[in-house]
Amino acid sequence: MKYILSLLVAVAVGLGLLGRFHMQSRLPQGRGTLMVYCAASLKKPVEAIAADFQKEHGWAVSLQYGGSASLLSAARVSKTGDLFLSADDGTIADARKNGLIGEVTPLVKQRPVIIVTKGNPKNIRALDDLLKPGLRLALANPESASISRVVRKALGERWQAFASHAMVFKPTVMDVAADAALGSVDAAIVWDSVVPQFAATESVTVAEFEKLEENASVALLKSSKQPAEALRLAHYMASPTKGGQVFAKNGYRNANATGGNPKP
Predict the structure, then answer these.
(1) What's the CATH number where 83 sits?
(2) How far apart are CA 121 and CA 187, in angstroms?
(3) Which range marks the domain in which residue 157 is found?
(4) Of 28, 30, 46, 226, which residue is most buried, by most CB within 10 angstroms?
């Protein structure tokens, strides 16, 4: 009886191993994991794109989120990673200056706006309305987040007045947007692409921000040990029929910069 039981167990294990081998044999050759540093404002669509890419190509995608500047520092120090997604052109320029990236592909365009709760109860119509006594303002930290870095540069000396008035600074644009959605603050400065992700909010466009359009781009990190597959993912993100559709579905404005890229 013990012999028969042992034999049955051995057969079951053998069949299990055989089935697992058969499954693995159907996976794409060279399957592995791609590490991507992703700006927080792009999290929702990039998560969906990464899942689609894994289904189609068999490569897992590990995503690390944060402010663009913080992520670039992490990539520079660790010397690891395959792709870097920045929310602005300036951080891409810094990455290029430091010799950290190769090919760059713009994905979507973003512009700063003011986010407020639905109905705009504080009647914010102009940028200086953020300086009203008693108004609770949240800002992303310009040392980590692209949104405040771009706005600080554009406003010059005026920036300090808003920085002094802010009741809270947070690491990423999504953090301050969440505060506005929850009513913890009355207003925050965010990317226009972020506002549709918070149903309880609306955006206020001001003259000072109308021309502050930035490209959110994906760049190949020179630290990548699998650059061919990393570029395949980058091109997949930019493809009008792949990642481009996901970005559009989530309310992002396409950067119209996919020409010349290989099909994913």
Answers:
(1) 3.40.190.10
(2) 10
(3) 112-209
(4) 46
